[in-house]
Every structure is written in C-alpha cells, then in structure tokens.
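Lab meeting notes turned into a lecture example. A postdoc, R.K., suggested we walk through two folding results consecutively so the class can see how the record format repeats. The first protein's sequence and structure tokens come next.
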Amino acid sequence: MEIMWLGHAAFRLKGGGNTIYVDPVDMEYSSTRAGTSSNEPESADIILLTHSHPDHCSPGSFEHLCSASTVIVGPQDCGRMAGTEIQTIRPGETTIVRNVEIRAVHAYNIERQKAPGTPFHPKGIGVGYLLSIEGHTIYHAGDTEPVPEMNAIGPVDVALLPVDGYYTMGPEEALQAAGMVNAGTMIPMHFFETSVERVLSAARATPEVNVHTLTVGETWILD
C-alpha cells in the first residue's frame, strides 16, 4: 500500500482498491517540511476527519476530492464544519467502509491548554484513527499528546504522529507514543515550527523506534 504525505496532518493512503484521505487540508507555514503537494489530486473513496479545527477540517480543501460515492467519516463537530452529510464516529467506535476497518481512538491534550482548564483538544471531541488495509494497521493520531489509551492501541505497522510541541506532543513525546503503540515505523507530521533535525535527534536517542521522514508529496510504500 502507499502512504503519501500531503503536508501538515494530511495524508493520502492507497490500498485494497481504495483511495483514502485523512485531514486533507492544504496548509502552508514556515516549517522546513511544510507546504502543499503539487501532485494531481485523485478522487477519494473515503475521507477521514480527526476534528473540526480548520487545519484539519476545511470543506474548501477537500470538496474537489469528493464524488457522489465518497464516504466522509468524522466526529460530530466535523459534520457542522463540513457542510455536508458525514458518517459520525466517536472514540472507541469501529466502522467498516468499502472493506476498510476504521476504528476511532482518543486524541486529546493533557498538559497543553489555551487557557487554564481549557485544553486545545478536550477529551472525547476529536479522534485518531486505526485503519486496517491490506493486512496492515495504520495509526493516524490526530492532534494529541501521549495519552493512557495509547497503551491499548498497538501493535501498528505505521504511526503518523504530530510533533509540533505546542498544540500537540513534541518529538520526544512522539517517540514515546510510538513506543506505546508498538509502531513498526513512525512518520512525523504536524510540524509547525519544529525542525526535522529535532525529530531526528529525538529518534537517535530512541533507536528502538524506526523513524521515516517524508517531504511534501513523497510516497512511501508499505510492503
């Protein structure tokens, strides 16, 4: 199967006869890995949205990917943002769409808050996803920190983990999370100002976790 990073938290997964997008929002910012993919977009069979923040759920960024048969899955808040009908899902729920098993898991902040007592991502609102495709398990963590529920997720073949360190966990915590879910490979995302070198430095300090960085538009083949 194929995993393409489209920038920020956006990925395109291809496998089992399906084209799946996760948080397909174009984001440009100053990270050395940021930008938008110049690849010609392909129509989506499935679109997964992790939460309603506009850098993850923005109708203008994915409406061109949709056809009459596209299935959009996301938390209830995303339905209001998307302006179209979606299949809602909550942490702990599992659904099967086009022979793809989709399990929603918790994604939330423990420490990072926009005001005292108000986390950027409250528990129970947003989700991460566990996807079973062609015998592989892919984990897109959404916006989260290492949370206790991660201990029950693994093992996973690939973990797509945020590393910005302000709204979500930073690189060192992401390596911790990769260990919690027993990831075969970690692919960092959601950089904002975090440098690739900081991610690689954290990886060198955690040699038991395989880290693979992608450039925008690059595809990694999972055999």
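The second example is placed directly after the first for contrast:
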Amino acid sequence: MRAGLRPDDEVCLAYQQLRERVIELLTITRVEDANKTVPACPQWSVQNLVCHIIGVPEDILEGRMQGVTTDPWTQAQVDRHKSDSIDKLREILINQKSKFDVVLPNIPSPVNSQFVMDAVTHEHDLREALGKPGAQDSLAVKVAYAWLLSHDRYSDEFSEQVQVLRVSEFQKMRALSGRLSIEQMNALALPGLAIANSLEGSPLRTPNRTID
C-alpha cells in the first residue's frame, strides 16, 4: 500500500524542529565557510544556500509566489540577501519565527509537506557542505520521504517496491530528491535509473556524478 502523507501537526512541528537545527548549524558556521561550494548545489555557495532557506518562508509571508520553485524565483532570494553575512542570515531566520509560525498551520496539504521536503533537503545539503552530518532520522526526513513517495510521478507499484527495500528513509529521501547519483542508488539496491528518469523535467535532478 502506498504510504500516506504525515498529519499536518507533524508537518508543522517538523519544520520548526528543522529550523532550530539550521539555526544551530549557522551558529557554528565559520566566516570562511560562507564561500564554500555546496556539493549538491554546485552553483551555490553556503551563503547562497542559506539565502534560499530563509527566502522561501520570506516569500510565503510576502506573497511572492509567482514562479514558485523555478530558478528565477530562487535566484531572486539569493540576490536579495547576497550581501548578508551568515550571522545576519541567522538573525533573519530567528526573527521569522513569530510571524511564520502563525502562517505555517494554514499552508494546505500537500503543499506544506512539499515545503518541508525542500527545507530538509537543503538542511542536509548544508550539512554536507559543512561536514556536519546528523538528524538523519528526524521528523522532517519522514515528512519529506512521505511526500516524495506519494507524488503522482510514481505508480503504486513503484512506491510499494521502494517502501519494502531495506534502506533507510534518509537514503531513500536523498535519492528521491535528486541527491544521489544513479551509481549511488544502485549500490543501495535502489532503482537508480527509474528514479533518475522520473525526475526528468522537475526541479529535482539526479546528479551526473557521485557527491562525496
């Protein structure tokens, strides 16, 4: 049976917990780390990635949703904060809490789960760039995995096949969100080519090379 989405209250909690983890990561991020390239998003530095992490809730609050998920939409977030330090971006994320937590429960399903999927995907992109792994069994990972597996790009048969594989939800989530190469997925006994083909034409793209 196809997995269902997580309940809305869990989705909200997942984002709030995720946000606290990102704030903690930014607290220990060194000034020189800001210019590091993000392996999963090689067109972005750590600073650029954080601009996007704060930019999505910022755009939701301001109603800037035209072109949502497109490259110009995310680039505008990067451009808007291109001169901000990591400390400043962390401060913005902290200050977002009071306003965004009022809006968060009103984001309808499944959009709320998609929002968490994007955020937790980038949390782990940030962790990879900083060499700070962790939180692989978080509620946000579970929310993201459920949303990815429920997407209509996958048949019930495919979803059931992935569910029964003895691979962690974290690794499945990274595969389905375009963070593992075909070779990496195959090594985990995941259907790498099928997943890569399913992501064609979507904002999620399987990398052409293995990401260390």
